[in-house]
Amino acid sequence: MNEKFCFRTLGRGVLAIALVLSLAAAPAFAEQTEYEQGKLQGELDAKGQAVWILSGLLLGPIGLILPWIINPHVPGANLIGKSLEYVTGYMDGYRHEAKPKNFLYSLAGFVVWGIAATALAVSLARSADQAATSCGEGCGGGCNDVFDNWLNDACSSSCSPQLNLR
Questions:
Q1: Contacts of 138 by beta carbon, 8 Å cutoff, 6+ apart
Q2: Would residue 8 count as lying in a domain?
Q3: % of the chain residues with pLDDT over 70
């Protein structure tokens, strides 16, 4: 019984010391450096720039890479009178959050680019099919589709341009 009392007292003592040490260290963990404060504020203030839509729209897949390579413009109005550590943290936080937002704008432009490219390809394919069909009808119905009969030369070369692989 005496041994249990000793371990309980020792356990309580160790627990009390650990509690005192952790409470004494709590203010040190609660305080953030100026860099961390600036970084958090920069992340909150970060905005994407809609001009990146043009990147995806005009450059296609290449436009998706640019927002990750080019650093966004960080507004300087919030940084007047701040320390160098705060400014560095703010710029890092702003850039860290603004790049993905700029990428989303670029992605929206790329989606529009992809839809336009697909529509153009479908339009060209339909146009070629209509030209081949009209060629077949103009040559007396001998070829309904230039692409199906390119080996047989069913239409004359005067009817429409064809593939000649001989």
A1: 155, 159, 160
A2: yes
A3: 64
Give tens-digit pLDDT for 79-112. Answer: 888 899 999 999 999 999 999 999 999 999 999 9
| Separation between Cα atoms, residue 26 and residue 18, nearest integer Å | 12
Residue 99 near residue 67 (C-beta atoms within 8 A):
yes
**Residue 64 confidence (pLDDT) above 70:** yes
76: its two tokens: 């300087």
Sign of CA dihedral 7, 12, 18, 21: negative
- Of 100, 109, 93, the closest CA to residue 68 belongs to 100
Q: Flag whether 17 is in a domain.
A: yes
pLDDT at position 21 over 90: no
113: in domain:
no
The whole-chain average pLDDT of the chain stands at 78
Domain span including residue 2: 1-31
pTM for this predicted structure: 0.58
Residues 6+ apart with CB under 8 A from 113: 56, 57, 58, 60, 63
| pLDDT at 17 > cutoff 80 | no
Contact 64, 106 (CB under 8 A): yes
The total number of structural domains in the chain stands at 1
Question: Is 14 contained in some domain?
Answer: yes
